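PT: before anyone asks, these are the final sequences, not the draft ones from last week. 432 residues across everything. Please model them as a single complex and drop the result in this thread when it's through.
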Amino acid sequence: MSSQENHQATINRYHNGEIEESDFKNQLASDVGLREAYELYQKDIGAIRKLAKEQLRKKAALLLNKHENKQAKFFSLKRVLQIAAAIALLITSIFLIQNYLQPKSAEDIFADYFELAAPTNERNATPQAQNWNAAMTAYVNQDYRKSIELLISLVNQKDFPYPERGKLYLGLSQLMDNKPQQAIDNFGRVASESSYFQEAEWYRALAFLKMGDVERAKAVFQKIANQPRHFKEKAAQVILTKI
Amino acid sequence: MGNSTKWSDEELIKAFTEGGALRESATTHIMTDFIHYVPTVVKKTGLNKNAALDAFTDAIMDLVDQVADGRFKEESKLSSYFYKIFYFKCIDLFRKNSTNKIDYQKELPEQVDTKLSTTRTMEIKEEMINLEKYLKLIGAPCRQILIDWGYWGYNMADIAKRIGLKNSKQAKDRKYKCLQKLRKLMQLN
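LR: through. Structure below.
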């Protein structure tokens, strides 16, 4: 074994703990060759340590990058979840608000606003007057088929003195007898200059509601709502907010 | 010895002391485990990321050295001990780069043994930049042999296996040639 190899072996044994530090220092003090070999060894190790540091530094940079990407993904996922939760909350709120503020059904509005007109009786003793009173009696007694029969007969008479009133109550009887389309037709035949016209217009709108024809009902209610002198102007305005 | 996810402090200490593949594996493990300290300390100290990474690497190397040569007395967890080393290195770096004082006493009342590396590490930073130029010329195979032998403590037989040589004598010869190359490059620097 060369002296160089001997020195290296001594250095290795020292670093492996096989030689005590004090002994090693003594050998360094007395052996110039060993001292020079050890100095060279320390320089080598120093440079190798620098190489190792460069390698570890690169590894650390990669690990940090990986860590940061993982964090970014985590926060990105968190953000996505937050947005999803906000959207879900918004949808739920809209659903609840819509349900809460949902307009009443046409049927409900009809029920809220429909009031059967009171009958009118005649004092005359004419046959037509008597038939009219008979129709009103049937109307009051909810015998709408009878009132319809009698009123159709009267309305079709050329000399019947109250045709517009007749059409109104005929329409009402038909409405009560669950014949809204016939009622609508008759309400629509009441003359616009008649004093019964506004009532007929009102009941016509309600009859459209009963039939479920909301759009046509709206159109009539809108017409009523635009007439400041209409006796149901305000009611029509309120109904329009609900349908 | 340690599962793929977690090493105990005892396992890490044994691995650092033993050297070779175990030391290298344990070092990789703690680097992965502790890397999250970097953004934490960057935030606390205001140090830039690159400087923090330098300090992190130094702290890792210090920790391995101190455990391997018995200076770590196991009075605290390895993670806590490492954090202190790393934090103080960052403080030192920050002080060098700024006039602002950081009151670190409130946070970490104990000093840790960093005498092996603190000053030397800061001073060699500039030297490293120059030396790196030359060390790059050493080539990857020589770099790895030298690091395996001189830093990780692999024996020649293991080095021979790693680089595909027939036996430890061939590895020893190769190591010798790489050392000669390294010494020449250091003389150039």
